[in-house]
Design a protein that fits this description.
Number of strands: 15
Bound molecules: beta-D-glucopyranose
Distance between the termini: 34 Å
Helix content: 25-40%
Structural class: alpha/beta
CATH class of one domain: Alpha Beta
CATH superfamily of one domain: Glycosidases
Mean pLDDT: 93
Radius of gyration: 21 Å
CATH topology of one domain: TIM Barrel
Order of helices and strands: HEEEHHHEHHEHHEHHEHEEHEHEEEHEE
Largest sheet: 8 strands, parallel, barrel
Strand content: 15-25%
Low-confidence stretches: 1-26
Number of helices: 14
Length: 433
Amino acid sequence: MPAVARARRACDPVPCGGMTSTHGRTTAPRLVFPPGFVWGVATAAHQIEGGNVNNDWWAWEHNPDSGTVASSGDACDSFHRWREDVDLVGELGLSAYRFSLEWSRIEPAEGEFSVAALEHYRRICAACRGRGVLPVVTFHHFTSPRWFAARGGWEAADAPDLFARFVTRAAAHLGDLIGWACTLNEPNVVAVMGYFQGQYPPGVKEDFARYAAVNENMVRAHTLAAEALRAGPGDYPVGLTLSMAEITADEGGESLRDAAEEMLENVFLRATTDDDFVGVQCYTRMHFGPEGVAPNDPEVPLTQMGDELWPQAVEHTVRRAASVSGRPVVVTENGIATDDDAERIAFLRDALESAHRCIDEGIDLRGYFVWSLLDNFEWHLGYGPKFGIVAVTPDTFERRPKPSAYWFGEVARSNAVVPASTAGPHGEQIAPE
Ligand code: BGC
């Protein structure tokens, strides 16, 4: 039995569907999204595939000095179980699946491309298409091949060209099936975590010159990759995804806040002028004071990531992305790390209400993707934080959709969300009479 059917029974009697009036229930007021709005879920190769032994992250996880708490190991075994994942996305009623290509599988040695690996990703794209699900393909989601890291990683002068060569080769194989393309996932996080905070490979701490050089190279890598995608087969929207936060300034923190926005976000937003969309990935709010990053607001609860639980960050980041870039926007990631799935539903509902306010203001917001389909490998924090709308049993890899999966599927099918003020007690999309 498909996982969705199995667990749908398990979640009875919580109603999982329908906006029509039935048996003592009335249709609640709804916030309707524009026709064609894309509803998706996102994943990344290294976080779900397992066995990605040939990239810089695997090496980093196995470096005892890295501070990473676990090896990605088998992850969710999605390299073998990808069809179950695509089936789940389709069965839930979602319209898009965002996943990434693992560069180290496609180009295991410099200049040596694996047709078998490309065929693997082609099968995933085709399965999405067969399910009526838009394949949204990310070409780089944090991990790089070991050979690339060994020759200087994102600091090497020719790093953007090497990335563009990989993108050209992969797009030649997949282009006719791609739905949307994201060149780089959060280049700003690769730069800041890898070359300033030192928590991601290569673990460089507080080296501003190296950090700035990587930022510059990643902007160029995006530009070259986008050109390569536009020149290849297929005709699909191309964009960049950025990590964005609502950044507030406490008194005296205004100039540091502005400087942070400039270095972390604006340099990339300005590089999207020829793109079809900007992908906003937002999770929380940050504060800046006169000394730099200031503590969280003690009144606001925290997520498992230690971030402020702040779903309304969506509207601030979408507004900023739209106004700085002038491009259409897609929320390519948003979600919460929590063990409490009711809290997840409440978060997603509030985030969607927040997104809807942008649409009301006339911002061209085209889609919303939950991070993540599966509970997965959360980088240096291992398997602790739970972002998934689907749980994965360790060792058996059984996929178990949570109530939030059905809730989000219903939102997608109805293209509407019932505001918190009128939703049912279990997060239903139908309000009790
Ligand atoms: C990244 C994901 C990550 C998520 C939650 C995003 O920054 O793209 O890979 O798992 O945030 O931390």
